[in-house]
Amino acid sequence: MSDVAPSIPTEYQVYNSYETDPTYQRKFSIVWASAAAFFFLAALPTFIWSLKSGRFRDALLGVREDSNSYEPIAAGTGRTKQAGSSRFERVSGWVSALKAPTTWTVPLLGLDIGQLILVVAYYITVVLCIVLNAELVDNPNRAGFLAIAQLPPVFLFATKNSPLGILLSSGYEKINFLHRWAGRGTLLAAAIHGALWIRNHLEYGVQILGAQKETSGVAAFALLCVLAITSVRPIRIHVYQVFRLIHILVVPACVITMCYHTTYMAPYVYPILAFYGFDLFLRLVRYRVKDATLIAPDAQMTIVRVHDCSSGWSVGQHVRLRIFVANRMFESHPLTIMNAPQATTCLGDIGVNHEMLLGARVQGDWTRALNAYARENNFHLDTGAGKEAVRATEQARNVVIENEVVVENVQEGVPVNVAHLPAPSKTGKDTTETIATETQWPSAGSGALIQVMLDGPYGGCAIDLGSFERVLLVAGGSGVTSTLGLLDDLVGRIVKLGRRGGEVTQRVEFVWCVRSFGALRWVAPFLSAIASRATASPDLAISLHIDVYVTCLCKPEEVPYIPNCDVLVEKPSVRRLVDGLLASFASGAGAVAGSAMSETDPDPEKPDSRVPEGADRDWKSLAVCAAGPESLTAEAKNAAARVALRHPGRRVECHSEAYFL
């Protein structure tokens, strides 16, 4: 006889959840970690580009002031790289075509096809790991194990300085949707675990509350429900500080309670602490306390001039700003950087040197208080004039907002010729009119002095615009703060640095959709400076055109002069803008894409009958960048995807910044 004990037949073995279920925890962890590694390999070219361009270094070190000013080479001494002939361009074109279907945005969900596939795959993995070979009804521990296993990815996708985001060269806002859906997956698994255990306790007459394990489990689930309820979008939008405070207080309490509930939570605390600790460490390294000047061009916009900042950020990025004023020092808010670093900015002609510009549109209590402080503490004005300016600006704002009436000789879809508008009155007695029409950038001695703390930068454009022949920049409302910085950097690299980086961009179309003509006043100095730089070097072959679309019929006399700019009274279609940009090359670099839109062909979904047949066959690469409302960015992504599918083999990329929470 053998000394080996006989094995128990499988059908008679008792299910041991503490032996079987942790293996599915590990399987789930292997799956999501493998997926993260796959996407890192797919994004490896972008990561290498971020290393070469300095973005990776900036992500670690933050904003800085260079001791030695950079002196650019003279314009015209650089070299222009021949685009479209390399194997890289052809491969990139086919990759764009293959990737295009995944960028289509799904209505209502706020996700594109690629994001939706990721979410569905995530939930399929979670559900399979919960139900495979599990006696879930009799012993629902498996669902609890999977709730714990999801906590590391929840924290990985949540932190501002996520290791995954840095490796993917992607901002936290791009992967934050995974944090939200992983959090919901955690709640789902915890709900299955808790509901089935409560059912079993009720069925067998076991007390639900009282014992330490049951009580801590119910408490942990209640805390998860609080997090889920207070994380819905309306709360994030309207009472963000409440949402943030609840997260700060409840998340640690939930993790600690889960540790009391089960000893199997302990191994998963370490990656949570590692991700959170890494985030805190990078924040401490990149915190900067700077002197700044607040400038309020009107009652709807505040510009923050942060001094002694030369580099350490990329265009399209944002920082979280904290102002040291009374009770506002405990709040930090994200503001987009409006200008390029000192080496490439075109705004030096208007006095923007070694500083960072941030734009804040009045939309809530914090931005309203910021604007009011800037106007009330403007030290450049004569004694008593500050409050007068505040009252006058308020009147100007009311005029702009309330007087949305049709003006004679202004037809919808027809450009307003700003070159022939009367110059703004400088000597009139009406202070309101003077403030409403003033377009000059304030001198260095004006504004409200303040100290601020910078946290960042974060996000940014993930594509190199200089490697595309044609670039379309589309902004809606305050999204212009993002596209303005992209335009500043691109024109500076071409004109100021003489294409020394091999930039191939030939045509740039800048489009801004705004409510009223008056909003143009504060942005006009920046656009004028950039447009003047672009037109000053014809030998570098850069064609820049600016279109401003006004959605309300207001007062055209408020439109300032901007070189190469058309102002149209209509709502634009991004699809038509893309088609016009691609067709403009055939009819000359100076063609105006916006002129293809008029009241004679109002349907944005129909092809433009005035675009010549075959006029869009000469381009090889296109970049579309959109910033603003979610509807605008979704339309831009769909338009770029449509072009990529229609022209396989040509490189088409889209970058979007949706302004929502």
UniProtKB/TrEMBL annotation:
It is found in: Membrane. It is a multi-pass membrane protein. Residues 468-551 form the Ferric reductase NAD binding domain. Pfam families: FAD_binding_8 (PF08022), Ferric_reduct (PF01794), NAD_binding_6 (PF08030). Residues 603-616 have a biased composition (Basic and acidic residues). GO terms for biological process: copper ion import; intracellular iron ion homeostasis; iron ion transport. InterPro entries: FAD-bd_8, Fe3_Rdtase_TM_dom, Fe_red_NAD-bd_6, Ferric/Cupric_Reductase, FNR_nucleotide-bd. Its main location: membrane. The keyword NAD does not apply. SUPFAM superfamilies: Ferredoxin reductase-like, C-terminal NADP-linked domain (SSF52343). GO terms for molecular function: ferric-chelate reductase activity. Residues 594-616 are annotated as: Disordered. The chain crosses the membrane at residues 30-51, 116-137, 181-198, 218-235, 242-263. It comes from the Eukaryota. Residues 310-459 form the FAD-binding domain. Keywords: Electron transport, Ion transport, Membrane, Oxidoreductase, Transmembrane, Transmembrane helix, Transport. One of its GO terms (cellular component) is plasma membrane. Residues 143-257 form the Ferric oxidoreductase domain. PANTHER family: FERRIC REDUCTASE TRANSMEMBRANE COMPONENT 3-RELATED (PTHR32361:SF9), FERRIC/CUPRIC REDUCTASE TRANSMEMBRANE COMPONENT (PTHR32361). This is Ferric reductase.
